[in-house]
């Protein structure tokens, strides 16, 4: 229990300390997204990825307090080029940890449990799961002494290229 509380504390402090501003004009968008959020059913997402022969990619981030997470949403996830790629190639599960909005309690609990399960303590963290639901890739790496996110992921083609290389690792 103490380990869980410490892990939760680390997650919250990381978000608070490392991600301290909100992008202009994002407040209403975040509030609408947060209010309609539903808990992630990871076993169902694993089954869907397997049935559809797609890569399961998890993103742990904060939609309203993490500058790289906000930039990723603005420059990649919201772009038609990436959305087309996502629809054809990914089951993309985004786990949000907002600071300025309140998620429904079931969503908060699920997100925290998954962050603890995958040891995703910094934002953003991207994790790819194989068809059995086992992690085989993550960015940044757990053992990286200087974790960071490469700049190339902040444009659709750069992120798509990265994901294409990750898909090859799964096979």
Tag the structure with descriptive keywords:
171 residues, alpha+beta, Glutaredoxin, globular
Report on this model:
- This protein is an alpha+beta fold and 171 residues long.
- 51% of the residues lie in helices and 14% in strands.
- The chain has one domain: Glutaredoxin.
- Strands 2-1-3-4 form a four-stranded mixed beta sheet, with helices on both faces.
- The chain is globular.
- About 17% of the residues have low confidence.
Summarize the structure.
With 171 residues, the chain is α+β, with helices and mostly antiparallel strands.
CATH superfamily: Glutaredoxin
Low-confidence segments, given as residue ranges, are 4-32
Structural domain count? 1
**What's the mean pLDDT score?**
84
CA-CA gap between termini? 37 Å
Instruction: Count the E strands.
Output: 4
Instruction: Report helical residue fraction.
Output: 40-55%
């Amino acid at each position: 229990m103490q380990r869980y509380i410490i892990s939760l504390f680390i997650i919250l402090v990381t978000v608070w300390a490392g991600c301290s501003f909100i992008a202009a004009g994002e407040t209403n968008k975040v509030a609408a997204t947060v209010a309609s959020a539903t808990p992630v059913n990871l076993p169902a997402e694993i089954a869907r990825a397997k049935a559809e022969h797609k890569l399961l990619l998890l993103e742990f981030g904060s939609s309203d307090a993490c500058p790289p997470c906000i930039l990723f949403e603005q420059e990649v996830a919201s772009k038609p080029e990436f959305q087309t790629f996502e629809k054809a190639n990914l089951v993309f599960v985004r786990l949000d940890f907002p600071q300025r909005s309140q998620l429904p309690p079931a969503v908060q609990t699920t997100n925290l449990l998954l962050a603890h399960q995958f040891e995703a303590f910094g934002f953003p963290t991207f994790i790819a799961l194989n068809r059995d639901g086992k992690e085989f890739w993550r960015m940044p790496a757990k053992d990286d002494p200087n974790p960071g996110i490469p700049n190339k992921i902040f444009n659709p083609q750069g992120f798509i290229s990265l994901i294409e290389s990750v898909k090859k690792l799964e096979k």
